[in-house]
Amino acid sequence: QKEVEQNSGPLSVPEGAIASLNCTYSDRGSQSFFWYRQYSGKSPELIMFIYSNGDKEDGRFTAQLNKASQYVSLLIRDSQPSDSATYLCAVKTSYDKVIFGPGTSLSVIP
Amino acid sequence: DAMVIQNPRYQVTQFGKPVTLSCSQTLNHNVMYWYQQKSSQAPKLLFHYYDKDFNNEADTPDNFQSRRPNTSFCFLDIRSPGLGDAAMYLCAASLAGGPLETQYFGPGTRLLVL
User: Which of A48, A61, A65, A80 has the fewest CB atoms within 10 Å, i.e. is most exposed?
Assistant: First the structure.
């Protein structure tokens, strides 16, 4: 089992819709969780982090964490074409290592 | 603005010719990382420095070395680049301690091996 898994996509949503990106992790003691956005040919850019169960909202982005299910998600409301990118989930494990998932490619169709 | 800077942004080298990539940060963060990222793959951690302590990932080839002469600078040396080493190389910095250890990435150096 891979330590951090994501649906590879591509995930296509129409402009204005909600995009839902999912991530699961294997280390039950993982401490904190990060979502990065990466445009093609660019470096990852931090969007949000979350470390408590529940929801965390920042503008159009909502991160959701369920430690019992070992699941973290990112919702993007009112998706825009500029949101088209690869979204990387990263998990800080109980042994203090940050593991990146393979990323989900999102395409927002105008 | 505090940031992570990488030079050069693009590097072309010949098969077997040593190459050095550089990274600097103005964040005053004590942890620095080097990642290799190939197309459509997750960033792969090569090594990281916790202050001056060097931590090598078990599967990082011996061909890759690193130096951190001070808090602000970190270098990646590829002693004999092969065609398979062509990739984006990402440097990141973080402030150790606590669960919110966010990594901030530089713009990356894209390495091409001819």
Answer: A80
